[in-house]
Amino acid sequence: MTVRHQNTIAKPVELHGRGLFHGIEAAVTILPAEDHTGIVFRRTDRPDTPDIPAHVHNVTKVPRRTVLEVVPGVQVETVEHIMAALAGLHIDNVVVEINAPEFPASDGSCIEFCERLMEAGVQPLTAPVNCLQIAGCTQIDAPDGGQSLTVRPYIQNIAAYTYHLNYGVRSVIAPQAMSIEVTPESFLREIAAARTFVLESEIKALQSMGFGKHLTAKDLVVVGPSGVIDNELRWQNEGVRHKILDCIGDLALSGLSLCGHITAVRSGHHLNHVLAQRLHNMASAVFTRQKAA
Ligand SMILES: [Zn+2]
Description:
It is built from 6 helices and 19 strands. The protein is of the alpha+beta class.
């Protein structure tokens, strides 16, 4: 299989909705862009500020979500779901305009982003994609233990994910695991509609701090002591599917099309960002060696 060419979308598309954490209404316009543009965010309500490239070196550490900023205080928040939709559908170059600090939460999954992007249509470009073919094994462990991310070589030009979700025997969320080779087709079928989940105790704590005050248990998957509250799971293992979605979105911040097998154990946004930075560094070293040869 040869390295695929870069893609954009055939025409602009729009969507809108309230953000998960802040509840602010946001209007989003996704615009086609040329080869090597990458994914670029633009705050149209702050026209005096620079564009924010979707790159791991623009990540600013905030709990429970992925936030990017170039100028202090001018951020785009909760970008992981639109990033997953773009990466999952192999859309490499777009400018994303947004008139608020946080992306619409929609139903807690990325299916609405995918639907809009497919409505626009995928437009092939001419340059080959920046592909990092993993040649050796790299593992990152969280300092507090219990979480890890490993990348290993896999079939050429294919990205595969295995995720082990296990919060211990006392957790109301049952252990789940899943493996998938990610193509646009498998992403749409198996991952894109998997929703964010949260414990009832966690959402109460967040709401007491002023976050997500507009949310009800119908807006995402809330798990209480007796199971899912006021909602039905789309899959029995919807939780692990969403963790793979987040991982795909966060690793896309490496700016690369990753070809290898990623194995995650309870990994969250922070560990995902550490691996995205490591992958970017690995690719930079490979490209420097290729230039020197
Ligand atoms: Zn998520």
